[in-house]
Design brief:
heterodimer; A: about 325 residues; mainly alpha; MetI-like fold; two-stranded antiparallel ribbon; 15 helices; 2 strands; about 70% helix; about 0% strand; globular; B: about 300 residues; 16 helices; about 75% helix
Chain lengths: ~325, ~300
């Protein structure tokens, strides 16, 4: 395409060529915009409209008046939340559960992937993989249902405990057991599945590196440390940033299902609280404020962790 | 890498021994709970309570399953879930593939803008209450649409499908078709889709599993029990003991009711997961493929 002579020679503004091309491209590919249209509409309605609606956190929302008709109250709902008697309990429960979950469920898949990758029997490797992926496909309801039957007074676990002559434990009625149950069930359900991504990265490692190391007399363990781990480091960092960025979005569903009146002192986290206050008691504005507070902390964490990751390793999400 | 197995040093042998032993422990830890549910669902509940059931079922009985299948709620739940999963997945696939294809094209003006706009929603959202109000304003509360439309596309799957298109449909192919006078729609339908069977399979499976397993949307948007998906029915039985009570109501003593209710729970875990556990071995390779495509390049 011939370049038209620039009208202004000063500055580094976009040459007119781009301008002409843009319309030409859009016209040429008009069908692609139709392809995207339904998805675009979906995102506008179900993601961006709620973002607009989040302003009810700063108003006294009444359904009759609508979002923009309701009265502004500024930070009143936030202040009420910060001053409420259970603010620190909720913060502590949410953060401690998330951190515990992250610290335990982040390294395990990496270790499992490294071990599977070094397994000498290929068939056995495939079999182990098939079995440990399976729990990922069980629904949260069934997972928690299994926890209920296994950890009940007459359940498998208590039968086992009693074999050793100890007293049975009422796991689901004990606030101290909520976190171990929550994290433990995540480990059981997701460790195998989460290992897939690392296995894929390990499969891409150049075998010549291993061969050279073997010739140099490196043991398997040394090769894992010096070849395999550096190979999966970039993916580890990305996944770590992602999970830290999601730290406040700890699974509502499982916490809600595992919650019983007796373990509430440790199982009430911000998302379950938002659900109860917002939808069960219909305090829309207050619950929206609590939810927004949660989302903002999350965003700050993500931004900050990404910055640290970039500074340390040059890797980041953006 | 045959080299590694030819001359293993003593250290390597120790390493392999511990590796195999630990992975076998892991295998048992994952498999045993699943196996136990199966044997417990056909064992006499008294023997389970007494701790006699460990490796094999005892006093085999199918009473739990008989009561489960006599209860109408399970069948309604199954029927609803099948409807939601089918319609929902069809909508998911239609939107995901078209959007991902458009976004995969180098000559699609504005692709970065749209990508950023979609990805942003992964990190920030209006939250539960504003989203609920939108669904309510649209008049979808207490209808099946509340379980289908608000989940019409998942950003992550758009990224995965877009990556696949970029990697497998070379730009030259489209250029050549364009020269021959092929329109974008025709190119998409006649060339892109037939070449994309693996990713379509992956997408169908991802979306179908998530519809099958979802219960949260039903919890917040549905009041009408006749619309409940299977997971809601399961939740009432497993966690709230509600429907189980209706299944054991004809038994005289409270103790007998308790026993059977427990048996029903094991059976319901199987009934609720059976469809996925049956297809899982066949679809496993596709799942893995999907995760890899999305993970490595996304």
């Amino acid at each position: 395409m011939p370049n038209p002579a620039p009208l202004f020679t000063k500055g580094i503004e976009k040459p007119p060529k781009y301008h002409k091309n843009r319309w030409k491209l859009i016209k040429q590919n008009w069908e692609l915009y139709l392809f995207l249209l339904p998805t675009l509409v979906y995102f506008l309605i179900f993601h961006y409209w709620p973002m607009y609606g989040v302003q009810i956190a700063f108003r006294n929302f009444s359904p009759a008046l609508g979002i923009t008709g309701s009265e502004w109250v500024g930070l009143e709902h936030f202040i009420r939340f910060f001053e409420s008697y259970n603010f620190w309990t909720l913060m502590y429960n949410t953060l401690s559960l998330s951190v515990l979950q992250l610290v335990i469920t982040f390294p395990l898949p990496i270790i499992v992937a490294l071990m599977l990758n070094q397994l000498i029997f290929k068939r056995y490797k495939r079999f182990v993989q098939t079995v440990i992926y399976a729990p990922h496909f069980i629904s949260v309801v069934v997972l928690v249902g299994m926890a209920y039957v296994f950890f009940s007074n007459n359940g498998l676990i208590n039968n086992f405990i009693m074999i050793f002559g100890m007293d049975s434990i009422n796991f689901l009625a004990d606030a101290n057991w909520f976190k171990p149950l929550y994290v433990g069930s995540s480990v059981w359900q997701e460790t195998g599945w989460a290992a897939i991504i690392y296995l894929a990265a390990l499969a891409a490692v150049n075998p010549e590196l291993h061969e050279a190391a073997i010739v140099d007399g490196a043991s398997k363990f040394q090769r894992v440390i010096h070849i395999d781990i550096p190979a999966i480091l970039p993916i580890m960092i990305i996944l770590l940033v992602l999970s830290v960025g999601n730290i406040m979005n700890i699974g509502f569903e499982k916490a809600y299902l595992l919650q019983t009146p007796l373990n509430q002192s440790s199982s009430e986290i911000i998302p379950t609280y938002v659900y109860k206050v917002g939808l069960q008691q219909a305090q829309y504005s207050f619950a929206a404020a609590v939810g927004l507070f949660n989302a903002i902390i999350n965003l700050i964490l993500l931004w900050y962790v990404n910055r640290i990751a970039k500074r340390i390793s040059g890797q980041g999400l953006w | 890498m045959d080299l590694s197995s030819i001359n293993r040093s003593k250290q390597d042998k120790i390493f392999d021994f511990f590796n195999i032993a630990l992975l076998t422990l892991l295998l048992i830890a994952v498999m045993y709970p699943l196996y136990f549910v199966i044997i417990a669902s056909i064992s006499n509940p008294d023997r389970i309570f007494a701790g006699d059931v460990w490796l094999f079922p005892r006093d085999i009985t199918f009473e739990g399953y008989i009561r489960i299948f006599q209860d109408g709620k399970i069948w309604t739940g199954y029927k609803n879930t099948i409807i939601y999963t089918t319609l929902g997945t069809a909508l998911n696939i239609a939107l995901t593939l078209t959007a991902a294809y458009a976004l995969s094209r180098q000559d699609f003006y504005g692709r970065t803008f749209f990508m950023v706009m979609f990805i942003f929603t992964m990190f920030f959202s209006g939250g539960l209450i504003p989203t609920y109000l939108v669904v309510k304003d649209l008049g979808m509360v207490n209808t099946m649409w509340a379980l289908i439309i608000p989940k019409a596309v998942a950003v992550w799957n758009i990224i995965v499908a877009r990556t696949f298109f970029q990697a497998t449909i070379p730009n030259e192919m489209h250029e050549a078709a364009k020269v021959d006078g092929c329109s974008n729609t025709k190119f998409f339908l006649k060339i892109v889709l037939p070449l994309s069977k693996p990713i379509i399979a992956v997408m169908v499976l991802f979306y179908a599993v998530s519809h099958w397993n979802s219960y949260f949307d039903a919890l917040i948007y549905l009041n009408d029990e006749s619309l409940y998906p299977l997971q809601m029915v399961l939740r009432n039985i497993l966690i709230q003991n509600e429907a189980a009570a209706s299944m054991v109501g004809d038994l005289d003593s409270f103790a007998a009711q308790q026993r059977i209710a427990e048996l029903i729970k094991y059976g319901v875990i199987i009934v609720g997961s059976l469809p996925l556990l049956i297809v899982y071995p066949f679809i496993q390779k596709y799942f893995v493929q999907g995760v890899m495509i999305g993970g490595i390049k996304g």
